[in-house]
Fold this sequence. Notes:
Elements (H helix, E strand, L loop, with lengths): L3 H13 L8 H12 L5 H12 L8 H22 L3 E2 L2 E2 L1 H4 L2 H19 L7 H25 L7 H26 L4 H28 L2 H4 L5 H5 L4 H9 L2 H11 L6 H15 L1 H21 L5 H15 L4
Antiparallel strand pairs: 1-2
Helix pairs in contact: 1-3, 2-6, 3-4, 3-8, 4-6, 4-7, 4-8, 7-8, 8-9, 9-15, 12-13, 12-15, 15-16
Amino acid sequence: MHSIPFLQQKLEKEFSSLHFGHEPRQLYEPMDYMLTLAGKRLRPLFVLIGCELFGGDYSKAMEAAIGIELFHNFTLLHDDIMDNATKRRNQPAVHVKWNTNVAILSGDALFVKACERMTMVDDTLLRKVLSLFYKTSIEVCEGQQLDMDYEQLNEISPEEYTAMITLKTAVLLACSLTTGSLIAGASEKDAEKIYEFGKNIGIAFQIQDDLLDAYGEHYKVGKKPGGDIIEGKKTFLFSETCCLLEGKEHLDFVNLYNNRTLQPEEKTLRVKQIFDKAGVVEATRKAIHSYFEKGFEHLKSLNLNPSAAMELKLFCEKLLNRDH
């Protein structure tokens, strides 16, 4: 297997040369702009890793990797509209830089471009790959709807929260690894195992993001600190705190968290004081570790090159220990 830095370099070369079109500018410029707001590109990277883990050639998985990243950017573009988020990776969101109608249409076009890329997979594998991709696409939409539904509720359980982020976030990471494995010719049983690995790692990553939103440093995280708290978004920290508190403390916390009239700084400070008192940061870190270990149990059950599996584990550990 090629090293992860090598695969990252190959991906960046592909994306740096990717442009969608010139006219109409209002359609294509926002699409190009989204790709300049580069994050970690984990999903396309996992496609290439999944392929090479099972002895495949990463170049045969490149089109699918691009397709999954375009799909991911489509979801981010539309999520920013639904969440009324003004920033994306510390830069103006598309609907702010242009307008909402432009953002919706450019997002739609990104999804079409994603599907085009996915169809470039070898014909003998196309049905399997597209079936997984379309299933995952619907699940991501289901997760987003649950997220919006939960905004209308006063509280949710940790189990409800985990079910939501599994659909909204984790299944796309699982799909990425599994897509690569299918392109490499992995068996159905092995594809299921790598899927479970990706799903559990995806859950761990999202819970880590919740922790960073509350406790990360603003200039590193790239968005307003405590944004989830200010907006009353249901996170792992919130749902876990609801379980840890009882009686009046529980009721007072729920009312505080759902209060939209407090000054942002005051609300963030008071909620984090309750988080700290309840010991929810430690409980959150334990949950992250638990999902991480559960994922690697599935990875260990695969007959993979030991050095390649270890590199992947160390890479994921580094991501889970990040501060932004």
